[in-house]
Amino acid sequence: MEWQQVTQSFLPLTREQTAEFASPREMDLAIASYNRAIRNLSQDSSDIALIALRKLTADYPRFHEAALLYGCTLAQEGELQEALQQLQSVSKTTGLPDDLAAAATAALQMVEVELDTRESQSHPGYDAPATPTAQRLAAAAALPLGAKPVLLERTGRRRAMRMASERERRQVMRQGDMPQHEETNVVMPRTGAEILRSILPVALIVLIVGLVVFLGIRFLPGLFTRAEQADTQQKLDYLLAEMQAKSANNPELQSLLADYKQKFPSSDANGTNSQGLPANSSESTPATNT
């Protein structure tokens, strides 16, 4: 029979449509994963759905709808022996609702028919017990609403199925095809001391930067100015020294130096005028040749 049509006939569930099998929060997550598996089956991603259903069946044994769909999906994938064991386990579950028990029994009979057919084909001399088509149709009618398969004779042609990529397989195995739990962020009010501790390093950095900028503006221009003054004084000293050395035979230079001394008579502690002229040389007069 066409198990693909059976699995695709299952309908999504809500919490109100299934018996309680876990806490409300876990039930919502499990049902969401179950409904996602149904969507994957409808999109020919049965391998992804199989992983999710296997996890649901292991984590929530009382989630009977997932266990039944898991058995049918195993049969769809050709894992008839595993499907047989799964459906036998579902049908033997105590406290199973009547509609699910009938559905599990019907699906179990269908798997047994396929196993018998496979056995007879592999052993031509083996006479498998005949199961009339009417009996299979009656068994299928016992499936609950939304899980009734469409029984067809095997045609040998099936829809092309998309296999899950390796990345999708790893993601499902890592996350279990379950939504991630939402993190709850609790924001506590900050005290004045905590605010001060967070602001203090920033204020200290701003203060240091401001102090460096202030010192740079305050003292750097003076340093450059003194350097320029020292350079100018050296040039002036050199010029006056040259003029003094050459004034012995030049009355004009002697007159110029005399005027300079009268206008700038002060001298520093080293005996040099503030303009760089030696104090003992500016009074000398050139010697006359005899």
Written account of the structure:
The chain has 290 residues and is mainly alpha-helical. The protein folds into two domains: 3-175, no CATH class; 197-290, no CATH class. 60% of the residues lie in helices and 0% in strands. The chain is built from ten helices and no strands. It has helices spanning 3-7, 24-42, 46-59, 64-76, 80-91, 98-122, 133-141, 166-175, 192-246, 251-263. α3 (46-59) packs parallel to α8, α4 (64-76) runs antiparallel to α5 (80-91) and α5 runs antiparallel to α6. The radius of gyration is 52 Å and the shape is rod-shaped. Mean pLDDT is 74; it is low at 128-134, 145-161, 177-184, 267-272 and 279-290.
Approximately how much helix is present in the residues?
55-70%
Mean pLDDT: 74
The dominant shape is rod-shaped
Question: What kind of sheet is the major sheet?
Answer: none
Tell me the strand percentage band. Answer: under 5%
Structural class estimated from helices and strands? mainly alpha
Listing every helix as H and every strand as E from the N terminus to the C terminus, the arrangement reads HHHHHHHHHH
Kindly give the count of domains. 2
**What is the radius of gyration?**
52 Å
Distance between the termini: 148 Å
Unreliably modeled segments:
128-134, 145-161, 177-184, 267-272, 279-290
Number of DSSP helices?
10
Number of strands: 0
Give a quick set of tags describing it:
disordered C terminus; mainly alpha; 290 residues; rod-shaped; single chain; 2 domains; 10 helices
